[in-house]
Each structure stands twice: as structure tokens, then as C-alpha cells.
Specification:
There is one protein chain. The protein is of the alpha+beta class. The protein contains 6 helices and 4 strands, in the order αββαααβαβα. It has helices at 2-22, 45-51, 60-74, 78-91, 112-119, 142-147; strands at residues 28-34, 37-40, 102-107, 137-141. A 4-stranded antiparallel sheet has the order 2-1-3-4. 26% of the residues are buried. It has one domain (2-147).
Amino acid sequence: MLDELTSARRKAEAIFKELRRKHPALDGYLVFWTRSGQAPIGVDLAEMLRVFPEIVLDSAVARQAREVAAELGHEKDAGRRGVLFDELARLEPQMRLVPDVRVEIRFGDLSYDLIARLRADDLVDRALTPQSASIRIVLGSVADLAGRP
């Protein structure tokens, strides 16, 4: 699961960098998104599970990982934190992403002209980006981005 997220993040960051080069006024950041929620693309697994638990399919392992992540959020003792991070690393390979996780752009300064130009840009996933009066710009699904060279 983490390998897929990491691969998708790297590809999305490269696309975003190119979009910023082509569109210098682009002020924004990337998020992992599903209909259930979102999280900034750069957070670690523990934070992801705290702010966006819906990113993984529900299972006994996922529930256990969420509990470990919640405990990590409150734990101050460095030794105990290390044990909890190790536990999370042990659980991670058994978790599965929900199928529709996407990478989207969130905007700082909102410019509708820029959004219209981005909708037409070849670097944007036009099949997943609404072509109507929406501010959503989708770079792709995690599965597609992770699979791109």
C-alpha cells in the first residue's frame, strides 16, 4: 500500500512541478482524495490514518492500524513511539487502499481562468476532472499514477 502511495505521490509531484512551470500563477498543493475525505499528499502513514482513515478498506487490520495511529498521535515517550511505528510498519502490508483514491490539486488563490486552462492541459486527467463549472482538478487515480513510468 505505501509503495503504491509513494509511487503515485512522486509521479503527481513531477506532474505538479511541470504544471507550475507551464502555469506560473498556479498556487496550490496536492491531496489524496476520495468521496469520504482527503489528506495532504506528504503526510506519513500514521497521520494519514488519523486524518483520512477512509483511505484504506475497512478490515480488522485497518482498525488496529487506526488505533495504533491514534495512540501515536498522543504518545510523548520516544521509546514507546518507536514501538508504535514498528507496529504500524508491520500492519501496513496487510492494508489495502480503497479503489477510488485520486490525487487532486487544492488551490490557495482561486483563479477560474487558470482552472479553465488546467482542465484543458494534457497533464491533467481529463476523464476524472469535471469539465463543467467545478474547481476540481484531478491528476489521476493512485493506481494509474503509481503504474506510470
